[in-house]
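tokens incoming
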């Protein structure tokens, strides 16, 4: 049995224990890891994975 959960809210991880955590940017995996990556995202945010200098 598997579950794919897509969220921007790592607080959900209080209720589930992920085997894998992936950060997607523009449809591409920018980082992969375990629960430690989710903890880092909660503490530091997603800024380091966002593209800088992009103009809309």
């Amino acid at each position: 049995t598997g579950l794919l959960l897509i969220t921007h809210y790592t607080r959900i991880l209080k209720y589930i224990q992920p085997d894998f955590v992936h950060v997607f940017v523009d449809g591409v995996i920018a980082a992969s890891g375990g629960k430690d990556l989710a903890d880092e995202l909660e503490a530091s945010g997603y800024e380091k994975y966002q593209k800088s200098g992009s103009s809309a």
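note: The first helix runs from residue 35 to 44.
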